[in-house]
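PROTOCOL LOG
Step 1. Enter all chains and additional molecules of the complex.
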Amino acid sequence: MTITVRVFAMLRDAMGTEACRLALSPGARARHAGVELARRYPSAHRWLGVARPALNREYCSWAAKLRDGDELCLLPPVSGG
Amino acid sequence: MGYLTFEPLDWAELRALQEGPDACTGAVVTFMGVVRADRDSRGTVRALCYEAFGEMAESQIGRIVGEVLSRWPGIGVVVRHRVGLVSAGEASLMVGVASAHRDEAYVACRELVEAIKRDVPIWKRVLYEDGTACWAAEAASSSDEPAGARSGCGSG
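Step 2. Run joint prediction.
Step 3. Record the structure below.
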């Protein structure tokens, strides 16, 4: 299955891209996407380690199951206000 | 509902909370987060540039407001958050709560502010007087001040 990953702010800067597509095994969970991104983008390790996942615009856990076509957003620590 | 705005925040929206539809408002509590001209090891802060994941930020603020309204039915709520460039001294976040009595207005206002700062996907980039810039999280981690003495460049 294939998912889209979107990243923001310092995580986007560290990865050098704001989105990418990942091919994952059926049954993959959000954490598997995180592991694959850490392998592809070692320079982003610092922010991947503290990012919060959101699936289809809702916060989720790293154990959330992914489905083909999902949009997984990885949000580094927010600082609004 | 547009909770995010590129425009300067308008105090008139908070004043409007005073005029409830059935004149039952007895208290209005307001919070304005203002960008500080902080000094850290990198220099003096000139402005903050707020970046949002717009769709999710709007939906998250909507969820937070909905939860507060369901907990205290009948209160009035205003929330506005700036995005883009906000100079030191300007307001970046405006929250107001109107209610019949002050207790729920204080609590609801604080709950809104804390939840917004915790859950809404907005990030700030710190712009210094010398033209350099970095993300607020990086400014906080490079501070010379002892841990706990500050929470990084920002507001509130």
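Step 4. Note key features.
The two ends of chain A are 38 Å apart (CA to CA).
The helical segments of chain A are 9-15, 30-40, 45-48.
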